[in-house]
Design brief:
6-stranded antiparallel sheet, TIM Barrel, 16 strands, glycosidase, Chitinase A, domain 3, Glyco_hydro18_cat, 8-stranded parallel β-barrel, single chain, membrane, disordered N terminus, Glycosyl_Hydrlase_18
Length: 387
Amino acid sequence: MATFNFIHFLAITTLIAIVTTITITAIVTTTATTTVITTAAAIKGAYWFDQEIFPASAINSSLFTHIFYAFLIPNYTTYALQISNSESNSLSKFTNSLRTKNPPLKTLISIGGGGSNPNLFAEIVATRAARAAFIQSTISVVRRFGFDGVDLDWEFPKTVEQMSNLGILLREWRRAIDIDSKISGKPPLLLTAAVYFADSFFLSATQRRYPVASINNNLDFVNIMSYDLYGSGNNSTGAPAALFDPKSNINVVSGINLWIRAGLNPNKMVMGLPLYGKKWVLRDSNINGIGAPATGIYGVDGTKAFFQIEEFNKETNATVVYDMDTISMYSYSNTSWIGYDDPFTVTIKVGFAQALGLRGYFFWAVGYDNDIITRQAWKAWILYERH
């Protein structure tokens, strides 16, 4: 506990005083060579999914650099992206809406997502023919609709073999993108991936690690899903995206450190930030801190967008608490309890990301916060950047 408090104290006091010296140059070591990679432009991204209440035209481009269109799913037989008429209309509307934005945005098609079948991707990466069909279709679709890149969100590879095959896919994908660029005369497409909060699935019975060397060599950056760390399946309250956790190694800092120790170049790491929280039903309204007994998560998965949380806090006159141990917020009213991030906790996380020399941050999902948190994150990054 003493070690945790010391690290916690250093992090908070450093961030409040503003990081005065940030070393962003990263050394990436592979089995063959050691390469020094210098700072690239910061990533300030967000995922967007097609929704009536928040069309792509509503995205404030001044707050982001990259927007990820979520999601497309490959065909289960051909393994290629086969675009339906409705998807074609949605993709066209998306790119047309953002193409005229000022400042301009980089746009990427994200493939997969949490609701997709992970076994489909296991089949795709298993053979050269399946990989080739998949890769060529992604390049074709991205070029056809005027996107700047493609993102893979495979949640998640289940075996050591699948992880190895993922590394092969990334290598072949990068090669195909380079060839496409030479033939078309256009800039190479961006190639990114959304990955687990840590480099390994250390909690699983099947131990496996991401192919870090292939990620370093072939991806422009990775979106680390530093959220959904606590939620469904837990009968006590908790922070869904705790920066620290004195009782567990399932937290943002632990995950980022594991990636760095595994050899991932920090300048390729983009920290995930949630624009939502998780709601529980308390067993006893008088016991209402983090770790309080609950009858379970509220509804299907407890998810509440930040703007819904603000409405809840106001309408119920909820008690709002900042938890210093986890760097998170929670609020409660009667037996309703919500854990979440707010502008203050996100500011601390952004400073932490910059202190570690990470490439930037991304949100799931744009439209969940009425630009309140996303605007603060943008300001915080610029603030730390200037000191």
